[in-house]
Design brief:
The chain has one domain. The chain contains two helices and four strands. Strands 2-1-3-4 form a four-stranded antiparallel β-sheet.
């Protein structure tokens, strides 16, 4: 069974985290970490910013956190563009169009 990698999006709200989205990055750990490394944000919470992006590895149905970034909405917009571009690039390579 292959491990799966995803970036989950959560809002930091007064009662904790509210997860509202996820981007599947594939099954290649190195590629997933490279994509996450391109994202904008800080590892420590940012005053006034309430978005958390978390790189997770799913092993046998159990999600394990690998890395976390905190960002504002402007960073989120840029990060979604990066993720979309990289997932598209990887899918093209897997189909032999690279």
């Amino acid at each position: 069974m292959e491990n799966k990698y995803a970036v989950t999006l959560s809002l930091l709200v007064p009662i904790g985290l509210h997860t509202y989205g996820s981007f599947f990055l594939g099954t290649d750990r190195r590629e997933a970490k490279n994509i996450f490394g391109m994202l904008k944000g800080k590892t420590e919470p940012i005053q006034g910013c309430c978005i958390q992006m978390e790189l997770c590895e799913e092993i046998s149905g159990i999600s394990i956190s690998i890395a976390v970034l905190h960002c504002c909405s402007e960073n989120l917009k840029d990060n979604i563009a990066v993720i979309s571009r990289e997932v598209f690039r990887i899918s093209q390579l897997e189909r032999g169009h690279g």
